[in-house]
Amino acid sequence: MTEDRITQLEETIAHLTLVVDDLNEVVTKQDAELARVSHLVRILTEREAEREQGNSGGVVLGDERPPHY
User: Region (Disordered): which ranges (predicted)?
Assistant: First the structure.
């Protein structure tokens, strides 16, 4: 292998290493955001279940027409 070819391969490896590091950072941030959103969905699902149990079969306000209709 020539010296130029070795230098080119080293540059390519250095570039790819930076790309992998950048992608790893993005994936880490997305994982944290996904965990946060999953937690919020779980909380909202529990709240909705509690709200439905508290209604005891009553009309859900979202299904009622507003008074101005």
Answer: 48-69
Give the pLDDT band of residue 64 (cuts 50, 70, 90): low
Q: Which helix (H) or strand (E) holds 60?
A: none
Instruction: Please report the sign of the dihedral spanned by the C-alpha atoms of residue 60, residue 62, residue 66, residue 69.
Output: negative
**pTM of the predicted protein model:** 0.63
Supply 19's token pair: 């790309």
Which residues make Cβ contacts (< 8 Å) with residue 51, sequence separation at least 6?
Answer: none
At 68, which helix (H) or strand (E)?
none
Tell me the backbone φ, ψ of residue 31, rounded to 5 degrees. -65, -45
The DSSP code for 50 is H
- 51/69 Cα distance (integer angstroms): 26
Could you give the CA distance from residue 4 to residue 6 in angstroms, rounded to a whole number? Answer: 5
